[in-house]
Amino acid sequence: MMNKIIYLTIALMGFAFLNAQTQKPNIVFIMVDDLGYGDVGFNGSTFYETPYLDQLAKESLVFDNSYAYPTCSPSRTAIFTGKQSFRTGVYTVPVLEKGDDKENIFSRWTVGREHPIYSEDLAKAGYKSIHIGKWHIVGPNPLVELKMKYPLKEKLGQPNPGEYDWVALHKSKAVQQYYPEGRGFIKNIGGTFRGDPAFELGGYKSETKGYLAPFSNPFIEPKQGDEWLTDRLTDEAIGFIAENKREPFLINLNFYAVHNPILPRSKAALEKYMNKAGDSITGQGLGKRRQTMVEYATMVESVDQNIKRIVDYLDQNNLRENTMIIITSDNGHNEGPSTNNRLRNAKGYIYEGGIKVPTMINWPGKITARRSEALISVLDFYPTFMEVAGIKNHKGVLDGNSLVGQFKSDSEFFNNRSLFWQLSSQYKHGTCTAVRKNQYKLIQFLADGKLELYDLSKDPLEAHNLADVNKEVMHSLLNEMVHWRQKNNVPLPPNAVVK
User: Fold this and answer.
1) pLDDT tens across 99-158, in order?
2) CA torsion, points 371, 374, 378, 384, in degrees to nearest 10?
3) What integer pLDDT is reported at residue 22 of this predicted model?
């Protein structure tokens, strides 16, 4: 009897080993909302504490030039669809837009079914997938929105906090097709049209601010032990891995943190940062907004701790070596809760503080740990997922490029490629097109044609406009920009004076 048990154990171990070797790689994609490039220790912060991410960065491929859009909606849409903003019509968060329909191509909110997202491809390839947290690629009333004639005459709106009339519609079959469970995910925890967690009456001024239980999100069922939203979302990620670890899985964890409203994680964490000196180089923890930045620091630390929980679970269950982990953000830091004196401006701006984000890829044995200067963008994640999963039959446009070729060493392609942004609706500044190539960035504002050229290798603060100084580079990048717009039939706002 004992011999049979031993043989059976050996056979099961062999099966588990074989399965680990042949199973498609798992994917854990973690996006931290509004986490700025300089909000983490591995990118220079000394006030905000991210000890685990700093440790993980030493074992990862860290990108120093990783870019998103200036706001969450176009970034998330680009990640999900792999497409530039002009293809989907999602240029910014609709409620943030300023001006009239002559100055804007008002942004769409809902990503239509004509734009497949990566979870659909992965589901067809056998992946078990869960979406956790912020979704934000469906509008408050998608059935009405998608019947509207485009371009819109007015910007789209959203319900006020405390209004739940939309919930029944959003749980209906007609609207669920635009939700995670209609898009290849098995489960949706917390994803809706809303971009922050404060659904309850009072919103940002409420007591819980959406981060403290009971959570006001109608797509998060209350559970015993609920306390802090970031912890609960992490629990869901770990639980899903536990249920599906014998098959390839995708964890799409889009934390609501560290987006407004700001709320201290705990009294102990708050006291720690209250007693900590600010950072004179970045400006973090200093000035009139010190109290908010102190509270923000506790939220950043909470995210760090929860990412550690996920990676520890992968380690403990021998899943780490077959799991690619990507950690990134959807735009630059929010200038209310944070700051970074090393970069110009913040969320909402086309300048570096608005679009440069922290990004790392961790995959033991598959990547060479290092910091890379290669230019990458949110558009590159979709094709990366496809190559990692062995999917070669994707139908449709993908504007980015797989990063798999970068895993071991930097390639000539990524070092010399051009990145483009098209912002056809106004938020923090006027509409514009931008291009980044090598160390240079050129911005053309569409309403007056004004050009701004910066050498980011010497001027990361973008303080010195070189458009009239380095005309050779300016004309070269401008010609490339114009060619890109014409080749792709990029629509421009009615008041644009450029081609």
Assistant:
1) 999 999 999 999 999 999 999 999 999 999 999 999 999 999 999 999 999 999 999 999
2) -90
3) 67
- Give the whole-angstrom CA distance, residue 474 versus residue 88: 29
**Distance in angstroms (rounded) separating the CA atoms of residues 398 and 389:** 16
Q: Hunting for tokens 């999900």 — which residue is that?
A: 80
**8-state DSSP, 38:** G
Of 271, 339, 295, the residue nearest 204 (C-alpha): 295
In the block, tokens 């964490």 appear at: 269
Q: Which helix (H) or strand (E) segment is 110 a member of?
A: none
What tokens does 364 get?
A: 């033991």
CB 407 within 8 Å of CB 380: no
- The tokens for 98 are 């300023």
Map residue 114 onto helix, strand or coil.
coil
Task: Compute the distance between CA of residue 423 and CA of residue 492 in angstroms, rounded to an integer.
Answer: 9
Q: Is the pLDDT of residue 20 over 90?
A: no
CA separation for the pair 47, 38 (Å, rounded): 10
| Phi, psi angles (nearest 5°) of residue 18 | -65, -45
How are strands ordered across the β-sheet holding 451-455?
Answer: 418-423, 432-437, 440-445, 451-455
Q: 0.90 exceeded by the pTM? A: yes
With CA atoms as reference, report the closest residue to 366 among 422, 322, 413, 416: 322
Task: Match 């934000």 to its residue by tokens.
Answer: 136
Asked if 108 and 150 count as a contact pair (C-beta separation under 8 A), the reply is: yes
